[in-house]
Amino acid sequence: MERSGRPDGKTYCFGDYRFIPDRQLLMLRDNPLRVGSRALDLLHVLVSHPGEVVGKDELMSFAWPDTFVHQGNLKVNIAALRRALPRTASGLSCIATVTGRGYRFVAPLRTYGGDQPQHSFDPANASTRELPRLPHVVGRDDVVAELAGRLPESRLLTVVGPAGVGKTTVAVAAARSLLDQYRDGVCFVDLAAIGDPQLVDATIAASLGIGGKWANTLAGIVEALHGHEMLLVLDNCEHVLSTASAIAEHLTLALPGLHIIATSREPLRSRSESAYRLSPLPYPDEHSGENRTGALTFPAVQLFVRRANEACGYQLDDADGPVVAAICRRLDGIALAIELAASRLPALKPATLLGLLEHSFEPLVASSGGTPPRHQTLLATLDWSYQLLSKDEARLLRLLSVFSASFSLFDVIGVTDHIGRSIEEIATCTESLAAKSLLSAVHDAGGPRYRLLDSTRCFVAERLDRSGEAADARSSHARYLLRLFERAEAEWQWRPRNEWTASYAPRTNDLRKAVDWTFGDGAQPEVGVRLTSAAIPLWDELSTVAESRRRVERALQSAEALSRCNPAVKMKLIASYASGLNFSDHLGPEADAAWTEANRLAREIDNVDYQLRTLWGLGILQSFTGRHRQAIATLGQFAQLAGREDDRRAVAEGERVRLTAVFYRGDVRRAHYDLKRLARDHATTAKRSGVARFQIDRFVSIRVALAITAWVVGDRGEATAALQDALDHSLALDHAVSHSNALAQAALPIAFWSGEIEIARLHVTALARNLKLREISIWRPVCRFYEGAVGSMDGDSEGVDTMRLAMEQLIANNFLVRVPIYLTILAEASLRHGRIALARDSLSAALDRADRQGEHWSRPELLRVRGMLQRLDGDLSGASETLLLAAETARESGSLFFRLRATTALAELWADADRHAAAAELLSTVCAEFDDVLPCMNVVKARQLLEALGRRNIALRTGL
Known about the structure:
By secondary structure, this protein is of the alpha/beta class. Helices cover 60% and strands 7% of the residues.
């Protein structure tokens, strides 16, 4: 390179700088800068060849002609230039070093003057500017409208989102909607076709249809577009991000009539940029989309159905509704993935496609030859993003695939302590992955939470396995969760339940994954045993009874690991196992043995909390299996220990169970009185609920017991209020065990006794739903029994058989509490349907069970049904005596409601025997005890009978 000796008349502009070589002048705005002549000579060479590599020898021969100088002089002058010149938008110097070769000027440059040819922009000749033809946009009308509305104010608008989410689709749709607003139209530039950032400006120029060449292409674009009004769409900027950002910034500043809408997987980070983060299409959750109508309310399903219809004429029906909803859920609402899945329907049925997608995303291969190669499979789209990552970013992304659900930055730091990076580096990488849309980020009060889309997680998990890092990553994940849940176990003692569950409930999938790994491929059973033990409070708070029992049982089977663990861990596992047995479908000797062993371990290590828990659990088991006298004795020990420790909350739990057993033993009046006192003492819901300590929320359990006793003693108002409190609070807690207990123990019998069959039907449905979601096996036969009882009340004779089979199951399960009263209800239903033999057998079994179990609370009902059978047999005298005994037994125990039923049956009998006056006198005494505030079939029936008896007595006295 030689000096020409002639001035070229050019001025070079970059940023706020102007360089005039002919005057050896470098200016920042209107201020000249003091820079040496040699440095300015070097700058002249570089700006004359923008973007090109200029060798060291060429630079030195230009700045020091015919003179030998050391390369150190070149470095010194380049350094001086760098100090004087601005940095690019990405923070880099305007002059880039090309190792081993030389230097390159990389800042956007405008060149004026000289003999540079001028080029004009003619919209009519820009044939390459045409927007691509895309399929009809589905589910994005609001997004397109918002983008179109924001663009006039935000002259540089970037649509940001993960791979395949539909960025190009919405950008093109928004641009198409704005065609009339730009005098010179819209130009679409596809940057995915280039791999070299230096070609960005040339690609834009080619898309604009501008011919000729410039020393500086960007300056030529500015000159060509000067005075024009148009919209530029820069599509797929992520792989040329810095250059695209600098060029977009420069163009919007230099051209007032130009607006730009860009698409990228991360923001351009330009000063004038407005970013719009595009979310996946809304899709049904697990409880939505159960039929065609419900599924089609979601844009993701709408897109799937439309593309499938275009592919093969597919029409969604009710049967496929849940399947298509599940496909869209599996694909996280990612538009590209949904379109690729829909294209498979000509060859696969939806159910088959869903089954394949549950295991792999490989079926998502485009069938259209017009699809860009990087969009022909979902995995290719993901690989496009993955290949753009730095080494550290890629490693962190692989590691994050161990998370099954959302996670915080603290979680990320917790699982990366083995990779040798500082917290600051980990935080920076995490933020970068979120910016690149490889992590979905949402912000809550605790800060950002991140999540990998399922498709991304599967992709990088495969890369994790292939890298050889999987074992270390999953071990780190399991050990982090162990630390986390051991901390959670301690926090459970003092944190409010809603806060505690909100913190730890989202981690259940990660917990399952880690526990399975420790007992499986990870072969770290010691970690698995401890992690299972620490997770017990969460499983109890979430009512995941069956899962807790299975996992605890698996931990207990790891005998070798268990022998090396802390005795407290073993105690907790056995106690949890016993608790699970209390809710199982069979209450056998194994449950007694488990509670006894856990109690022994608690005493051995002097753990008072677990001594109380195990005594309470054993007392519940004894009551459930009809051993009420033993339960009262066990709860007596509990009360002594709780009182000695001054544990007021525990005292209340034990007292509630003991009083329930007292009620079953027949002292209804005293149980009700003491339960009212207990409810007053615990009149408000506890901020720190004791759910996971004693299986059921204390506020709920006390009111369930109070509701049933209040109804039996005849206080319907108190019973109804207590029941409603129990149902409302258990629902507010979202604790299925507490809610199921309230339904089965109080809501269903009260609805049945009050004659509110529709309410009983709703309660049966609610209980069945709970049992389906949470597998609380113990209540299944009870639910079936009341389902049959409701059917029998509706006149369905098969309801009686349903009740009978449920009774057989209850007895086989050894779940014997209330079996006498259930058998009595079955006997009465059998009578209504003319099945006399079954009625006799049921009543006989009820009498036997009541005597053996000491469930004397049910005796008035048993006697009432016996009297009804005696009347049916024609033994009117025997029936009268039995019904009188039923009423008297009810009076002595304080069971006013049962007394009303027995007295009504006796009054009917006497009325048929023409003892109208005696019947009226008998019935009026009991009816006077009830008000008319709340509806009750039995009260209405008694009052109607009393009125009829009154009219009959008047008629007899008057001779009419």
